[in-house]
Each structure stands twice: as C-alpha cells, then as structure tokens.
Design brief:
Strand content: 15-25%
Largest sheet: 3 strands, antiparallel
Strand order of the largest sheet: 4-3-5
Distance between the termini: 67 Å
Shape: globular
Order of helices and strands: HEEEEE
C-alpha cells in the first residue's frame, strides 16, 4: 500500500512547494541574433524597434499615437508602449 501513497504524497509536496515559491518573474530574453535596435517577436524573429522619423520608414507597419513608427508583424500588441496605433500603414 505504501507504494501507491508515496507517488501521490511526493506530487502533493512538490505542488505545494512550487505554489509557496510564488510566480516566477518574467525576464525578457533577447534572441542572440537580434541587434540592440531590434526585439524578438512572438515568432522568434528579430524586428526593428519602433523609431521616430519625419515620414514612414521602409518596412514600417503602423504609426503609433506618440509619433513613433512600428515594424510589428502582428496587430496584437503593436504600439502597446506608445499609446496605441494612430494609423496602420
């Protein structure tokens, strides 16, 4: 009978110990191939960071409400730290 209780008790203990530890802090990890002027998107691709320019730079996909141009490949999250999207390009 002890053989059947031991795995359950171990699982309960491990579950409780990880719950007590609390959630892990999210630490942004840059892709090794991304330059400082880029970020890694959800697909794992390096994308240029938003930038200021007098006109839309080549490859820009949106103009943010703060005037920065985004190169985001997905609509979700585009310009999220720049007040939202003012215009899709």
């Amino acid at each position: 009978m002890a053989r059947h209780i031991l795995p359950w008790a171990a699982a309960a203990f491990l579950g409780a110990s990880t719950a007590l530890a609390g959630p892990a802090a999210a630490v942004p990890v840059l892709h090794a191939a991304c330059a400082a002027s880029e970020y890694e998107n959800v697909d794992g691709a390096c994308v240029p960071r938003p930038e200021s320019a007098p006109a839309a730079p080549n490859g820009a996909t949106a103009r943010c409400k703060d005037g920065e141009y985004s190169f985001s490949k997905h609509r979700s999250g585009t310009c999220s730290h720049h007040g939202g999207v003012a215009e899709w390009l």
